[in-house]
Amino acid sequence: MRQPLHLLPRDVAPVPNVDLEAEADLARCGALKDYWYVACLSTELRPGKPLARTLFGTGLVLFRDAQGQPTALRDRCLHRNARLSRGAVFDGRIGCPYHGWVYDASGAVVEVPSLGPSQRSELLNAEACAREGLKPEPCALGRVSRFPAVEQDGLVFVYMGGDAPARAAPFRVPHWGQDGWTVYFMVTRFPNGVTNLVENFMDVPHTLFVHPGWFRKPARKRVPATVRRAEGSVLVTYKQAQDTLTGLGRLFNPRGLPLVHTDMFHVPNVTRVDYLWGEHGFVINSQCTPAGPTDSWVYTAISYRLPVDVPGALVGRALKPLVRWYTRQVIQQDVDIMDIQREALLDGPGGGVYSGTEADLHHADIEAYRRWLREGGQGSGPEAAERDMVFWI
Ligand code: FES
Ligand SMILES: [Fe+2]
């Protein structure tokens, strides 16, 4: 049974659907921070090199410890607050670029060059030092905040939820390490907030306008779909008769098998789009990391498996640059439209109040989950629901 979206009564002041400022602020994002977020690709975190990243408006420095494990510390020296990420990594520790204080992977100060070989103040004026809160030796200086970091499926994740336990394990990259599947990553900085990004990645009608000819031909087709919301996921199953993709989509389907297209959102920041023809096809998995209110990093994993009649690994390898070029163009088109949306959203009061039709049913579900988390994520959240919708492309 189809249900139309409820329109707001005219006399109620509209409440913004998104609060990008709060979503990206560690102090105001509620339970949105209680998840693992991608901070970088494994390949970006090179031994001996610090890497600066901002998550939820908080600067972090990432580096590999002596065992090669990823480490994430607050990117601010305890001494005079210089950026540690501008310093050097050696023996799994990091040295500040300003006066050389050294921190180990737990964030503790372990060496202060100005203390000399004894690493202890001579304390000629112990009373004055105590009065000023000065410390006699490195270990008394304390530590910078450390954030748990793990590496999985080619990605480095950081947890910023403090003492609260993570609400879910780091998201697994689809088909990572599976026979016959190729996976590659694309890293993109998007000038918009996470809610708007995940909605964009789960949006079919925009493809005709933002990616004309890259995905689909405008055909005035009726697209029925089912939207299922349950346990923090929103699954859209498209039931369009004879759905086809143009562009590179053709490569995956020389035998004209029916296309199975599903879009999925997982709280709080992940989308997964599957285009499958039998046993082959491609999956686009996007994990969004908020840096600031309209500044996000998106880690896109593209997993694909070519049909057996596209001859072998050789062609697969030859196609790689073409597939990469194609996906980069498509992502850049989304970056541009997200910039256009951001510009108007921030243009005076009233931004962030969205209206919609049935084609936006799943967007309303995504917003409901993210709003619930931003408000603290108490209880079981939006209740499960399954509805049909129809739109035209
Ligand atoms: S500011 Fe870092 S050592 Fe002085
Ligand atoms: Fe798009």
From TrEMBL:
A Pfam family that the UniProt record links to this protein: Rieske
An example Gene Ontology molecular-function term: metal ion binding
- Rieske domain location: 37-158
Q: Which InterPro entries match?
A: Cholesterol_7-desaturase (IPR050584), Rieske_2Fe-2S (IPR017941), Rieske_2Fe-2S_sf (IPR036922), VanA_C_cat (IPR044043)
Highest rank taxon of the organism: Bacteria
Q: Is RNA-binding there in the keyword field?
A: no
The protein's UniProt keywords, in alphabetical order, are: 2Fe-2S, Dioxygenase, Iron, Iron-sulfur, Metal-binding, Oxidoreductase
This chain belongs to the protein called Phenylpropionate dioxygenase
Q: What organism, scientifically named, is this protein from? A: Pseudomyxococcus hansupus
